[in-house]
Design goal:
GO terms for molecular function: calcium ion binding. Keywords: Calcium, Metal-binding, Muscle protein, Repeat. One of its GO terms (cellular component) is cytoplasm. This is Parvalbumin. The chain is mainly α and about 110 residues long. The protein contains seven helices and two strands. Strands 1-2 form a two-stranded antiparallel sheet. It is globular and about 35 Å long.
Length: about 110
């Protein structure tokens, strides 16, 4: 399954273009622009499964760095600052990784 089967290619492009500049990534704005905030909880969990590159059931810091590239292969890598801010925004139990429920809560809240 690909992200393009859940989100429109135009919306993904718009979201990627909005955060091209270094340190300009804002997860809330990105989720809105790509249309993820309007999706069902089931679709959000499907997106989480795609982002969980190693299939561990969690998205770890190393996977978050490449978050934008999961949406568009030519996108930039998130900076360390952006990655840490993104992780902190979702990691409700402070275990250093984002679980499916944490991701869903972050996207749909």
């Amino acid at each position: 399954m690909s992200l393009a089967s859940i989100l429109s290619a135009d919306a993904i492009d718009s979201a990627i273009k909005d955060c091209q500049a270094p340190d300009s990534f804002c997860h809330r704005k990105f989720f809105q622009l790509c249309g993820l905030t309007k999706k069902s909880p089931q679709d959000v969990k499907k997106v989480f499964g795609i982002l969980d590159n190693d299939g561990s059931g969690f998205v770890e810091e190393e996977e978050l760095k490449f978050f934008l590239q999961r949406f568009s292969p030519g996108a930039r890598v998130l900076s360390d600052k952006e990655t840490k801010e993104f992780l902190c925004a979702a990691d409700d139990d402070s275990d250093g990784r984002i679980g499916a429920e944490e991701f869903q809560a972050m996207v749909l809240s």
